[in-house]
Amino acid sequence: MNLAALWKLPVLFCCENNLYAMGTALVRSESETDICLKAAAFEIPAWPVDGMDVLAVEDATQRAATAVRAGGGPHFLEYRTYRFRAHSMYDPELYRDKHEVEEWKARGPLHTFSARLKAEGKLTEEEFLALDREALAEVDRAVAFAEAGSWEPVEDLARDLYTTEPEGT
């Protein structure tokens, strides 16, 4: 961020702040939990966004991207959101209670946005269910494609990782 600010690079930094590291609450690991203040220390525009609101995310991202593209230098967005599931399959989630998770699920972006569209008459329940089935089918196809693929040969894992000096230097 420092170099991007110094050189006025056209970069949009996006932070998905789900309030937890792997298993530690942000409030337990950081003396300053406002990530935007940390980014602002580099003297770049930085603002928080309700990451649970689809339209707020779209609006803020469009505004920031437009500013960056117009030569406004780097910008930073902190999407304040929540992770509904464990960090990994080995995470027993002993660091937060189930009630907290359920409270955040009530604000889930897909549910709140689809409810808003339904209330505005822009989406019916049948259309929502059809979109849901279509999305699940797409995920199933992607998983099947990945599982049918071949493994990368071990000898190729470090390919393009290192460079060598040109001969004669």
State the share of residues found in helices, binned by percent: 40-55%
Distance between the termini: 33 Å
Sheet with most strands: strand arrangement: 1-3-2
Give the class from helix and strand content and strand pairing.
mainly alpha
Question: Quick one: biggest sheet?
Answer: 3 strands, parallel
In quaternary terms, these chains amount to single chain
Low-confidence stretches: none
Count of domains? 2
* Overall form: extended
Order of helices and strands: HEHHEHEHHH
The beta-strand count equals 3
Radius of gyration: 21 Å
Walk me through the topology:
Layout: H1 2-6, E1 12-17, H2 26-29, H3 35-40, E2 46-50, H4 54-69, E3 75-80, H5 98-105, H6 109-119, H7 125-148
Parallel strand pairs: 1-3, 2-3
Quick description:
The chain is mostly helical and 169 residues long. It is built from seven helices and three strands; from the N terminus they run αβααβαβααα.
